[in-house]
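Team,

Forwarding the record for the chain on the shared tracking sheet. I've put the sequence and predicted structure together so nobody has to dig through attachments.
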Amino acid sequence: MHRESCDLLIVGAGINGAGIARDAALRGLDVIVCERGDIAGATSSASTKLIHGGLRYLEQGAFGLVRESLQERETLARIAAHLVRPQRFIVPHTCERPAWMLATGLLLYDLLAGRSTLPRSRRLRADFPLLQQTQPPVSAAHAYYDLWVDDARLTLCSLLDAQAHGARVLPQSALSAVAAEGAHWRCTMGDRTVLARCVVNVAGPWMNAVEALRGAVAPPVRLVQGTHIVVPRLHDGDDAWLLQQPDRRIVFVIPFADDFHLVGTTETDLPSPEALGATAAERRYLLDALQRVFGRAPAEHDIRWEFSGMRPLIDGGGGSARTASREYRMTMEGGRGGRGWMSIQGGKLTTHRSLAERAVDRLASFLGSNARSVTADRLLPGAEAAGPTQRSELARTLAQRHPALSSAWIAALVGRHGSETSRLLEQAARAGGPGRDFGGGLYEAEARWCARYEWACNADDVLWRRTKCGVGMSAAQRDTFARWWVDQRIG
């Protein structure tokens, strides 16, 4: 039995757990992160992939949440510039909400954003070219900006930074037992025992199961499923759509990779995590949203990928899933000199860094540390290639340095790994090249990199979270890659 100790044991390697681990490690705390599956293996890789203020939350009066989110949007645009891109959204004027209401909401959105690096919203005239894609063409629309993000890699990079400052990250290591032992919690994961001064439960949909290990009961969590589908491109261009629905929900249609659109999301209540999975009704809902605006929609057999994420929201005791709070609840038990336990419910991708800062402020005080957070100013690993211009320049430089390698592949790597691409390509060159081409833009060199440096344990970790290359591969190609992974004993 392997036995070790730490200041903090963080249970859950989703975006909130990763953010807390990064903040705590940067303050000099001794951190271990355990995760039952893959990093970002559940909710944090199954989002709509946006860093946004939450325009629709204004209708619910959640002005504080929107303001905080828009402030964090600016921070993440700076520290994770290799993983985000500005995304313009077109909001056609349809009958669900009058144009004056949209204009007022977007004006408030801009005001809450303050001094932003993104353009302000504006009204589009009927002759705006993209509006001709709707059937019939809409009379007018509004446009506004948020950020697209690679959610799984944002989580991963936060943990890479935590590891660089001493954190130990343990995927595929489920917490199985918890017991009090003096001023520590004795925690068991397989053949490993950890004595932790504090345990931080950020297990998301599984937080109640973690609480039960110590004989506690957490406040109710409302599980809401959000399903997304990826379909062949509906039109050219980089613009996305925000489509209002008759039930007052919204559906995003966002460019995805080079040849697809991501369409989502739904909001379906779940009785338990085991019930997760796209339903026929959800697929039909999303396809109907496309049909309603564009006058056409792909067939179900055209769906290239679908995924469903669980949002563990604070249970307000009623109301629709659409209006359930996206705030978070943080509780801390324990006194100075003893053992502590923190539980966190709710939250959203955009505000994970500020949530982590508040959490570690409390944890550091409990542990007797007065170190302050630096996460708002420190770039994530790979972010030295900041912004689209710098990424393009880096890709050109690396293509000149490695003329035998595909420039398209190098550009794709820079989009995923940022400035870390230099090291990846140097290793590939020493190995004689990129290695086997599995299709969809995935080569052996990157797969091995993901296993060696990014905790990838199986083929799906690479296909759907580290690279998203699986969407551009055929089923046969994905099967071939999975067999190669097992045969090579990579993970």
